[in-house]
Amino acid sequence: MEVSDFLIFMVAVSCGVLALILRLVFKRLFPRHAEAFQAQSSAAAAGQAGTAAAPQPEAPAHSRWLRALWAFKEWMEVGFTAVLLAFLIRSFVVQAFKIPSSSMENTLLIGDHLIVNKFIFGVQIPFTDKFVVRFRPPHHDEIFVFRYPKDPSRDFIKRCVGLPGDVIELKNKILYRNGQALDEPYVVHKGPLSIRMDDPYISPEEKLIFNYGPVTVPADCFFAMGDNRDFSSDSRFWGFVPYDNLRGTPLVIYWPPNRIRIVP
């Protein structure tokens, strides 16, 4: 569960509860004031629309503080609607993300701001990782956003290079899928061209940059790798991405201005 999502939801609930309490207070204790204030609001709306307004009932005297309270109630109703709509859009439709690392260079750069389509893989229950409806899995070589399996509070963005049942292998930095070498024009290699595999000073993690596998992608999981292949924390190091960790696919880079484009 994301803290930001929870805060947005709680703001919406708070606005809705306050608006409901104030509506009940007016209905029970100040019905004449409520009738007058509602008529005035309707007349104002009619005036803006250019239509004739019905005669307004006169508000009882000494109602300045009640008028302010009524205005506050109306603002709470507007706030509830607006914040709830923002929560639903963010939870189910689209969300903004920022690229924090160089793992997807040169396709995505540090500081790129993205709009991500969260509806494409299915509908998740808010505040959980469970899909109630699944639409489609990621495609081969598609960029996707997912919750980091080792720490679901963090979002990662990589390229999906393996689907369930695929056999993935890396030989001398060349990626093989089901025995076929892949043509990956988006991949860059910024590390050493070669290393000695028997060098005791080379860590196991460094060796995975050159050779990995073969491994078979399990059911309901995906194999993710960064385009900046030598400097990417990806499935070679922490394993597969479960379907329930999927978040969406990037649509566009919307910031900075010189980077505005559709994500390929």
Q: Helices, strands, pairings?
A:
Blueprint: H1 3-29, H2 31-49, H3 64-92, E1 94-98, E2 113-117, E3 122-124, E4 131-134, E5 142-147, E6 155-162, E7 167-171, E8 174-177, E9 180-181, H4 204-207, E10 212-216, E11 221-225, H5 235-238, E12 241-242, E13 246-255, E14 261-262
Antiparallel strand pairs: 1-2, 2-13, 3-4, 5-6, 5-13, 6-11, 7-8, 7-10, 8-9, 11-12, 13-14
Please indicate the count of domains: 2
Helical content (DSSP H or I, runs of 4+):
25-40%
What's the CATH topology name of the largest domain?
Umud Fragment, subunit A
Q: Which architecture of the largest domain would the CATH scheme give at its second level?
A: Ribbon
Question: Any idea what the shape is?
Answer: elongated
What does the radius of gyration come to? Answer: 27 Å
What does this structure look like?
This protein has helices at 3-29, 31-49, 64-92, 204-207, 235-238; strands spanning 94-98, 113-117, 122-124, 131-134, 142-147, 155-162, 167-171, 174-177, 180-181, 212-216, 221-225, 241-242, 246-255, 261-262. The protein is elongated and about 85 Å long. Strands 1, 2, 5, 6, 11, 12, 13 and 14 form an eight-stranded antiparallel beta sheet that branches. Strands 9-8-7-10 form a four-stranded antiparallel beta sheet, with no helix packed on it. The chain is built from five helices and 14 strands. The protein has two domains: 3-92, no CATH class; 94-262, Umud Fragment, subunit A (Ribbon). A hairpin with a 2-residue loop joins strand 8 (174-177) and strand 9 (180-181). The chain is 31% helix and 25% strand. The protein is of the alpha+beta class and 264 residues long.
